[in-house]
Amino acid sequence: PAARTLTAGSITASPTSVCPGESVSISSNAADSLGHTLRYQWTVDGSSQGGTGSSFTYTAGASGDHRIGLHATDPSSDNPANPVDASAITIHVKNYSRPTVSGVTANPSDLERGQTAALHANASGSECSGTLTYSWSASEGVANGNGADGQYNSSSVTFNEADRSRPQSKRVTITANVTDSKGGSASGSTNVTVNYSAAVKHFGDIEFPKGSARVNNCAKRVLIEQLYPILAANSNYDVVLVGHVDANEAPKGKGAKGKSLDKDRVLNTAGVLSGGSGTCTALDHSRMKGVWVGTAQDAEFLPTSCTVSTEAPKERKGNEVDANEAKNRRVEIWLIPKGLALPSSAANAADLSDADLKKVGCPK
Length: 364
Prior knowledge:
The chain is mostly beta strands and 364 residues long. The chain contains three helices and 23 strands. A five-stranded mixed sheet has the order 3-10-9-6-7, with no helix packed on it. A five-stranded mixed sheet has the order 19-22-20-21-23, with helices on one face. A hairpin with a 2-residue loop joins β15 (142-146) and β16 (149-153). α2 (261-274) packs across α3. The protein is rod-shaped, with a radius of gyration of 44 Å.
């Protein structure tokens, strides 16, 4: 019979540098001179792996260099030839580790509600991470961004709107989430402080019958059932009262009737709040200021309603008021947090005289 030879040929692979989890196609051109079908035994780092065919798919595992070898034999029993080993090749498995976030920053980190802050995340990946994608979130407010840079908007951070008597603040956590092309992820956070300043509040206005300084029953309910509970619950609020008359009530001539009508309206209003007997509440005099400005109407009219009680108040004859008709016969009521400037319409407000308040007492 003819002499036979078994040649090892060479091993080919594509690609030869991969990341963990990726596949490599490996094949051999080993041959037998008689055309017999050969049996192949593939090895990875010396350990048998793969099938018995002329090719197999290697799935990359741990990073580093891995040797792919081949042992070829002719399984036929006639005219055997010696087995051969092909020269091993190297497959390089690149390093992979999950991304890391080394820091997240917000500038500024202390802001008033409604302001924005610039965000930045310092993140890195390994040589197999591919493109890093970013997403931003915040415990309150809105954080979004384009990649590693983002923006935080504090406009929607919630505070106690019912109590603007003192500053409020909240600590908000902003988080950058980073994901790589392998599905690995990491996150990092930073905190910002969102502040909400105290604010002057125009509580509203009570109105008066023409030519009268008497606080009618509707206005008393506003003062006793709506205003006083706010002042009692929020000790940082002071109250400022601004008295007005309309053009038809303006005094004319020396000693004219109604000369002090705007002042009397302020004092009677203050008496209902501080009289402390009968139906009046007992607000401390030191928390009240007043000013009377005649026919000046610098602040917008803001009518109040006496609908807290279940029954509509009965008024004495002649003490009813029509909101639109009486809108300039009013006392403005302002809630002023301690230390804040007075509104322009009350700029000259001053402490009310104890003697005047004692004289007024608890108005009927």
